[in-house]
Write a structure and sequence with these properties.
alpha/beta, disordered N terminus, Rossmann fold, 43% helix, binds nicotinamide-adenine-dinucleotide, 439 residues
């Protein structure tokens, strides 16, 4: 894996900020506020295990390409590791570490009996044939299998990985162990071990906390306006759900791999998520010309953040709201809901909060995905599958309760929601480590 454990030291003054430095800085604040002893803090700053593998793949043209595979298992004191596998050409070990740590906190806040992990394959699936993708998925699992399993570590999809990828991985894992073990990977297709509702769960969970937050601000979703960055799995379902509650989503954005830049698609009367889904590819890239033909204004990628709306929902990638663009957030914005993982730099987050905007942090806002993954594991373990509405009702209840816990802690300790979320999460994980006798 690139870098060494020394990268877990706090960044030197002036060093570039990264998702990992942000995650560590946030953790350190919580550790100090909770008065954690040095041993416990040291344990929680570092992943328990990191795996880096080379995955050889026979390409369609007969050559062999070697892909880098990563898995970071941050902490499993509260239960088996859980976390997605990202397919991305610039996936980076430091980012994967940060995301693994965020998963530990996210599961703890949601009250799930799970730990945190994250994986990646450094690749661009858009440039691989289906056969090459299948061989890559199977190769990753063969290398990682001895460190996975329903009681050890349970992968799931993430950016650019799909239910089909998870099924190939599961099939390879089951072939290796000689048994059907549906609870060993989540995010599978419905009907072959997948949970009804999984595709919608993260977006629905985002909207569940968004509605709770609007309520705390005294705003009615009917008449509320929002701008969303991204138009992938999370953004599309959040947009549909929001529209269902009578809110108007005036803009969404997406990354155009051909042009290597993002575009914002705006319609002041409200975008139609169904219509845009019909002209988006499976990676969430909206067809620019088709959108223009449908009457959407096609603006630069940065325009999503400048909209005169009540709510901003970053739902694309990490590191999107920085000190550089946060001042461009319109004065009307009252709420930012972090649907993506780590979309806001810590300093930009403080700037936003200082302006009186409520910022719901990622580890609360997008926990609907892992909550549903947990329900998929539970269903897989009993080989008994629930109705979609039962699953989504449970996701909704869990998200509403998690938001209430965090909001109450924030009011009690007079801290922003992000700090409150970290206090709750770190406290729960530290307690589990202590009670196990690790520290
Ligand atoms: P996805 O791959 O389905 O979609 C990503 C979207 O972001 C695409 O529309 C892409 O075009 C767009 N995008 C990428 N870079 C962009 C840029 N610079 N500007 C504008 N748009 C850009 O991914 P997803 O599953 O929707 O995940 C989105 C975020 O939510 C990620 O941070 C992911 O880690 C997080 N998340 C996802 C889930 C889940 O269940 N899918 C769960 C928890 C957290």
């Amino acid at each position: 894996m690139n870098g060494s454990l020394s990268t877990l030291e706090p960044p030197a003054a002036g060093a570039a900020r990264t998702p990992l430095s942000e995650a560590l800085e946030q953790f350190d604040r919580a550790a100090r506020a909770l008065g954690l002893d040095a041993g416990t803090a040291g344990l929680l700053r570092s992943p328990l295990r990191e795996l880096r593998v080379s995955v050889p793949v026979r390409m369609d043209d007969g050559t062999t390409a070697v892909f880098e595979g990563l898995r970071v298992q941050h902490n499993d004191a509260r239960g088996p590791f859980k976390g997605g596998i990202r397919f991305h050409p610039s996936a980076d070990a430091g980012d994967v570490r940060a995301l693994a740590m965020l998963m530990t906190w996210k599961c703890a806040i949601a009250g799930l009996p799970l730990g945190g992990a994250k994986g990646a394959i450094v690749c661009d699936p858009r440039r691989l044939s289906l056969g090459e993708q299948e061989r890559l998925c199977r190769g990753w699992i063969r290398q990682m299998a001895r460190n996975l399993g329903p009681a050890v570590d349970v992968p799931a999809p993430d950016v650019m990985s799909s239910a089909q990828h998870m099924l190939w991985m599961l099939d390879e894992y089951e072939t290796m162990v000689g048994a059907r073990v549906p609870a060993s990977i989540t995010g599978k297709p419905v009907g072959i071990g997948g949970s009804p509702g999984r595709a919608e769960a993260t977006g629905y969970g985002v909207v569940a906390v968004l509605l709770e937050a609007l309520g705390r601000l005294g705003l009615d979703p009917r008449g509320a306006t929002a701008s969303i960055q991204g138009f992938g799995n999370v953004a599309q379902h959040a947009a549909r759900r929001l529209a269902g509650f009578g809110a108007t989503v005036v803009a969404v954005s997406s990354w155009d791999a051909e042009d290597r830049q993002a575009y914002t698609f705006r319609k002041p009367s409200g975008v139609d998520p169904e219509q845009l889904s019909a002209i988006a590819n499976r990676f969430g890239t909206i067809d620019r010309r088709a959108a223009a033909d449908l009457g959407y204004e096609v603006l630069p990628g940065s325009a999503w953040i400048e909209q005169e709306v009540d709510v901003l929902v970053p739902a694309a990638l990490e590191g999107q709201i920085t000190l550089g663009n946060a001042p461009r957030i319109h004065g009307r914005v009252r709420l930012v809901v972090e649907a993506a993982n780590g979309p806001t730099a810590a300093d930009a987050g403080r700037l936003i909060e200082d302006r009186g905007v409520l910022l719901v942090p990622d580890i609360v806002a997008n926990a609907g995905g892992v909550a549903c993954s947990y329900f998929e594991q539970v269903q897989g373990q009993s080989n008994f599958y629930w109705e979609r509405q039962d699953v989504l009702r449970r996701v909704d209840a869990l998200m509403t309760a998690a938001f209430a816990d965090v909001h109450e802690r924030a009011s009690r300790d007079r801290v922003p929601l992000r700090d409150a979320a970290y206090l709750i999460a770190v406290e729960r994980v530290a307690r589990a480590c202590r009670e196990r006798g690790w520290v």
